[in-house]
Amino acid sequence: NSSNAEPSRIMTIKTSVCGTGWKAKYIPSLQELIHIMNVIVSHTCAFSKCIYLK
After folding, report:
1. Which range of residues forms the domain containing residue 50?
2. Looking at the domain assignment, is residue 28 inside a domain?
3. Please, which domain of life does this record's source organism belong to (predicted)?
4. Does the global pTM surpass 0.90?
5. CA 36 to CA 21: how far, in whole Å?
6. How far out from the chain centre does Cα 29 lie?
7. What is the dihedral of CA 25, 29, 32, 33, to 10 degrees?
């Protein structure tokens, strides 16, 4: 039943990439993912700003 579902949560954790506990061989992939997500978020924010200011 969806009425019993726990509400969505957003969590922010500030740490270094090495501090995440990822295995060393996966860190380059993690860094690439972080870069891609930063680009997506930046473009989304800029696009939203453009829409709401017009």
Report:
1. 23-54
2. yes
3. Eukaryota
4. no
5. 20
6. 14
7. -140
Asked if residue 11 is part of any domain, the answer here is no
In a domain, residue 46? The reply is yes
Which residue, chain included where needed, has tokens 């506990």? 21
The CA distances from residue 47 to 10, 30, 34, 53, in Å, are: 22, 26, 20, 10
Residue at 43 is within a domain:
yes
Number of domains in the chain: 1
At 1-53, the pLDDT tens digits run 456 777 788 777 788 878 878 888 998 998 999 899 999 999 999 988 888 87
Q: Which of 6, 29, 27 is nearest to 15 (CA)?
A: 27
